[in-house]
Amino acid sequence: MDIHLKKALSKSKGGLRGLIGPSILLFSWWLGSHKAIWNPFIIPSPESTVQALISMIEDGSLIDHVASSTGRILSGFAIALVTAVPTGVLSGLSPGFSAYFSSSLSFLNHLPPLALFPVLMLWFGIGEPSKIGVIFLASFFPIYLNTMEGVRTVNKSLVEASRSCGASTWRTFIHVTLPCAVPGIITGMRVGLSYGWRSLVGAELVASSSGLGFLLHRAEVFSRPDIMAATLITMGILGILLDRAIGYLTMSDSDYMERLRRR
């Protein structure tokens, strides 16, 4: 059998296995609702949840809230990415550079981003900057720490071999150090995105007039568990899509790293 066909079949089987858990959960949800095992006011039925989801899509409200949350998460995450990766690389390459900032960064890392949200609102108001700031704080440290660790754990033999072949420090960094650190950077990006997403929803619950967190809070105020369930499902799906997007965007770098290891 062709190797590509084998890989395709293997991936399809893995995808089918991944559907087993959600299918069991969905069936249990449907069965519990129809057998009246729990109060529908506490846990709405799948049918009412889907109907609420369709209604919000048709009137455009869900799209607007998704757009608001997505714009905030992408803005905060992008700022965290362009600051955390260079800082992590420098910290990984230079212990002296890391020593200057390690204590301050460690202190900030252990402060919950949502605990700093009132301070950000005091500085920037309740507008977009405070929410983007929360996302930045939540996303920065996973990216920074994983980047730094990825650079520090690069195989020294590869670096020495590159230098012995006459490569400059810059070329060694570009062609050896950075590709070897890519898996750590990608891991930091994925973890940072999930942390940023959670912090964003928390900020929208507190002070916002749009976004999925605001939609969830409004549904709770008006006692609409079907909208709450639909919003939670939307959050989960959107989180998966954003995580998969990072995977697809960085796939070429991961493939390059794999080829480098094989060599």
Question: Key terms for this structure?
Answer:
transmembrane helix; cell membrane; 12 helices; mainly alpha
Characterize this entry briefly.
The protein is built from twelve helices and no strands. With about 260 residues, the chain is mainly α.
How does this model look, in words?
It is found in: Cell membrane. Pfam families: BPD_transp_1. This is Sulfonate transport system permease protein. This protein is an all-alpha fold and 263 residues long. The protein has one domain: Orthogonal Bundle (MetI-like fold), CATH 1.10.3720.10. Helix content is 84%, strand content 0%. It is built from twelve helices and no strands. The longest helix is centred in the last third of the chain and has 38 residues.
